[in-house]
Specification:
heterotrimer; A alpha/beta (96); B alpha/beta (267); C alpha+beta (424); A: alpha/beta; Transcription Regulator spoIIAA; two-stranded parallel ribbon; 43% helix; B: 267 residues; alpha/beta; Rossmann fold; seven-stranded mixed beta sheet
Amino acid sequence: MEIIGELDYSNAAELRDRLTTVALEPGQRLVLDLAGMDFCDSSGITALIAARNHAHAARADMALAAVPSHTLRVLHIVGLDQIFPLYPDSDAATRS
Amino acid sequence: MDVVRRNNVTVTGNPQGRTVVLAHGFGCDQNMWRLTVPALVRDYRVVLFDYVGAGRSDSTAFSEHRYSSLDGYAEDVVELCEALDLRDAVFVGHSVSAMIGVLAAGMAPERIGALVMVAPSPRYIDDDGYRGGFSAEDIDELLASLESNYLGWSAAMAPVIMGNAERPELGEELKNSFCATDPDMARVFARTTFLSDSRDDLKNVRVPTLVLECTQDVIAPREVGVFVHQTVPGSTLITLDATGHCPHLSSPEATNEAILQFLAGLR
Amino acid sequence: MMCRTDQQPEPHGAGEETSGAAFAALLEDSAEELYESAPCGYLSTLMDGTIAKINTTLLDWLGLEREAVVGRMRFTDLLTVGGKLYHETHFAPLLRMQGEISGIALEIKQADGGRIPVLVSSVVKRGGTGEPLLIRTTVFDARDRRAYEEELLRGRKVAEDARKQAEADRARLQDALAVLQHSLLPDSLPQVPGVETAAYYHTASPDRLGGDFYDVFPIDGKRFAFFLGDVCGKGPQAAALTSLTRYTLRAAALHDPDPVAALTTLNTVLHERYADGGDPRYCTAVFGTLEPDPVTGQVTVRLASGGHPPVLVLRADGTADFLRTPGGLLVGVLPEALFTPAGTALAPGDTLLLYTDGLTEARTGKDRTSLYGDDGLLAFATRHAGESPRAVVQALTGLLDSFGDGLDDDTALLAFGVPADLAT
């Protein structure tokens, strides 16, 4: 799933709704490609956490690909860079 | 605020003569005196004005707070006297204006030297031992009908004067809207007027006073005229053979004669 | 063959005249009839108002007999009190001055006590020499018109009332929010011996509750605990989380003031409360303790951070640096979380500064590509290193104000410092 544009308070809820429609099988991996994401604030972070919870509930996995530098910085501050597997691009994310 | 502009003051007549101030009551404006002015202009200096909210006064000066009591109107009068530097003027007040004159004379005794009361009433609602002419319910009904904004004001608002063949000069002057009163301000004036009680103030009058009453006046019945005459020390009472509340319009000759005689007899 | 005589056609010319006459006869229109049965009321009065003539239509409306009215009643007797007053003060004078008046709204009284709203027009009839003789008046039934006017007025009143209600509701809501917001922050900070404290809170919007929080409180005779943080989200939900967080940390601190322990407790509480729904809730927080040494004046700081931006230490020698706590996780996200401890000592002239990301995420340019950021903040801190906590917070407040609309998130600031003049 690709996320393009700004992910903030105004549209995070929409992302979360979308995520719930994604059907996951156990052992699958949900990859969020953030290459096109211009901005992400705390509501965006909440949406990512929700995505992870959703994946884990289905006994699937979640990873982030092509995380922009600003978001990477935020993930580092909040410690989520240790929780989300991070990959430089979606191919790398799906391959592992 | 310039008082002359605020109250649409007109000064006419003989600059050498004693000043006579003509004050309208509830209803219309200084135009009510148009049949009286000609009788005075030869010998007297005549001052006409509109209370704020009436006629062509400056309506931006209107304050519901100030004009919710007769004192507010009396202050208008005192300010007018001061602006024109009047001394010992004769104040002719119609209806509730007569009471306003009493209050103003009390506030500025050097400005007002005599009073003429035309169809005056110090209180319109009946009381113990006093007949004002209206019951409390009557006045409630009047005020309620003013609230509902129906009374008198139709879409046409102010009637426009048409040419009057007998008095062409009248037609010439009064081209514009005439007797136009803002309904909201009129409501305040009505409320102030018809709920007022100036009976006690009459006792304090210290100047020569003429009381003019009409034989048939629903708004100021005969008993009221008698009461005013008896309460104002040293006053003179003249009963005009007139119906209605505005003898200066319905019986101008008799009204003018009574006023002129009184003026001639002063000091 | 039968002839029907009444159907015989008339000769041409005579036929037209006859049908004209027949037409008129059918109408029965005498002047009398026109006057008496007109669709409006007619009235003639003497100048003193005595009724001299009145038509049947008006009598029917009034429910009166002609004998009772003509020569006996005045026009004003037909009116309500208000009408009488208006007649005396406006209607009659105007009629006198103008000679005519039209379209005045009044009400006439019926014999049975009812009222009919009417529109009245009058004209003065003058004699040969111009003297006024009598007044001719027309009275129109204005019931429908009045009903329409009342409907309009009623509609306007309803709209006006609704508007006032909405305004009152909004004022009440804002009051409630203000009270609530107020309850989420400490009224005043306690005096910490040997330490100067300063704080500042900025809410992004008066219509929404802020999500930042802080507190300072004593834990035993020697030490004080402090925390500052930011709950995710905004509004009432976030406020509930703020409240829970504050009181959990306070209670945890009194039980075990170790910063990592306190944050761990908070993490457990939040995770247990919120993790199961599809609505993850968490916060970032820094928790720490201050232990002033009355002898040296130095203050020992121990703290731990859960996903919060790193605190700043401003030194008396004019330098400033972040006190980093890498790896600390957002509080409430995972059942077991790791929090990174750190510590430092504050000497006279040093200041410890905690802040929320409203500051570093503030937009300095037109869009989100230029944010104030860590570098900006560090440069700012360096410029003010050595100043008192109050001065630092004040300078930062000025900075926040200068962001204008660029600052669209809540921001909290908390600073501790050892007064420089305590140097021994």
